[in-house]
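agent> step 3/5: call structure_predict on target 'Cell division protein FtsQ' (Dongia soli).
agent> reason: downstream docking stage needs a structural representation; sequence fetched in step 2, passing through unchanged.
tool.input:
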Amino acid sequence: MRSLTANNPVSAATVGRGKAPAGRAVARPPLRKRPRSRLERLMVRGGIAFGIAGVLGGFGLWGAQSGWFAELGGNLGHSFLEATAASGLALDEVQVTGRSETSQEEVLNAIGAKRGTPLLGIDIQATRERLTALPWVAAATVERRFPNKLVVQITEAEPLALWQRQQQLYLVSRDGKVIETDNLQKYAKLLVIVGDEAPRHAGKLLEMMASEPDLQRQVTAAVFVGERRWNLRLNGNVDVKLPEEDPASAWHRLAALQRQQQLLDKDITIVDLRLPNQVVVRQAHPQPPEKPARKSKSNET
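tool.output (status=ok):
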């Protein structure tokens, strides 16, 4: 921008002669551009910085959080974003917390921004969506920290059970989603669940089972029957049929029977708790009925 000064140059012909005759153009020597001093260059650069700061101070907080600045590249070109990066608002550091199963490479690829990228040009919403699409990431927050940092907080999925479906095992999280992993052996001790809708209901089942931890340790598998109730496999050989209504009460009854009578240690295969206040037990190897004793022959006459 040209600066206005009080000492504008004029031609020698106009000095002492008043105004030039009408119709005649006054010849003016060409303006020579004086090179800017270092102080002036700093002032210009500072002017850009102050302008950006003014934008941020006005509606910049809304623009930064809503992603409006990220759209400037398409709407107004890259000039503004390049100016912000030149003034120091460029990505130089990515801080990630909460990462355990997710690799650093996966996180950086999902962010997709290289060092030097204008910080205001990063689409926060799109970055968050790419992060949550990663196999282990259940939730993510992404935040700009001016002048040059991106802060990412990751919440990873909590493995809950192994879901058996069509002769295959899948790791599922507490919210019922499948977690893609190549290392199922690491989770071999988790409960195995069966049933199309089992992952969605397994969370409540595990909460109920945790109320009786001694009994819970004996459960190896759970089958969601008819999309409405559970059958539990205990110790690998006893099936416990829980009712559809109030399964927690039945679970506590079973725990009491185990404490008092060691029911599950007996030679049984099924414990049916579907009827209120009743326990039906099926033996594994029922005793054969006793044969009637033979009458001995008498020699009496």
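agent> step 4/5: record observation. The longest strand covers residues 137-145.
agent> proceeding.
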